[in-house]
Structures are given as C-alpha cells and as structure tokens.
Amino acid sequence: MNFHQTVAAAILAASFVAGPAAFAAPASKFIAMVDTDSDGTIDLKEVQAVASATFDKLEKDADGTLDKKELKGRISKADMKDADPDNDGTLDKKEYLGVAQALFTLADPDKDGTLDAKELKSKAGKALVNLLK
Ligand SMILES: [Ca+2]
Ligand SMILES: [Ca+2]
Ligand SMILES: [Ca+2]
Q1: Exposed (0-12), middle (13-18) or buried (19+): which is 74, by Cβ within 10 Å?
Q2: How far apart are CA 89 and CA 83, in angstroms?
Q3: Rounded to an integer, what distance in angstroms lies between the CA atom of residue 28 and that of residue 22?
Q4: Of 22, 64, 89, 121, which has the fewest Cβ atoms less than 10 A away?
C-alpha cells in the first residue's frame, strides 16, 4: 500500500466510524441544521436566524406571542421566568430572541463568538438546542 492509499484508507475508516455516530448526536445534528455557512460552528447570527424562523413556525394562532402551548416545553421554567417578567406565560419575538441570545452567551464560556459541538453539550448549550428545535 503506498502513502496515498494509506491516507485514503484511513480517511475512509475514520468517516465510517465517525459518520453514523456523529449524525446521531443531537449537537451535531443541531450544528448541521443551524450552521448555514458550514464552518462547523454556530455563531449568534446563525442562531438568531433559526430562532426567528422557529418563532414564526411555532406561532400558530398569529397573536404575536408564544404561549406555553405553542412553546411545548422548549424553555425551562427558570429561563421563562427571566424572559417573561410580567409572568403572563407568553413570549413575544423579541423576548424569544433574547432567550436564544442569553443561552448562546452562557454556552460560549471561551467567548470566541461561536459554539462548537462541545459547548452545545453544556447545560446552556442543551437548553439552546431545546429552545430552537
Ligand atoms: Ca457557522
Ligand atoms: Ca401565539
Ligand atoms: Ca465558543
């Protein structure tokens, strides 16, 4: 086996092993969905675009807010309390995007402005995935 064949075989083996496992992981699936510039990480702009689309998708009765029924458990009680100071149980688009931004910031402790798969597995990262799914 020459050098190129060895490299090709190694790449094939690696992709065979990493492929299905990576696809099954929610963080990787989330990155694939959100990462519109395909650089392997998600930045705040990408998160905001998805959050905006998700809000519109969930906002079925078109009253301008998401209520508990429309949110379907996408947000934790604690996060809802922070995002909904008047405690009426609804989030308008600005509040929903605000939650996404707050979770993004929490999930990015190295403050490089992007979330990688590891950061998405943190508590805030998981909450963000849950919010935008
Ligand atoms: Ca990206
Ligand atoms: Ca609504
Ligand atoms: Ca980061």
Answers
A1: buried
A2: 10
A3: 6
A4: 64
What does the pLDDT look like over 35-69, one tens digit per residue? 999 999 999 999 999 999 999 999 999 999 999 99
Ligand nearest to the CA of 58: 2
Among candidates 59, 70, 61, which has minimal Cα distance to 93? Answer: 59
- Cα 68 to averaged position of ligand 1 atoms, centre (Å): 30
92, two tokens: 């308008």
Q: At 71, is the secondary structure helix, strand, or coil?
A: helix
25 or 74, greater pLDDT? 74
State pTM to two decimals.
Answer: 0.79
- Reported residue count of the chain is 133
Among 84, 116, 38, 88, which residue's Cα sits nearest to residue 128? 116
Comparing 23 with 51, the larger pLDDT belongs to: 51
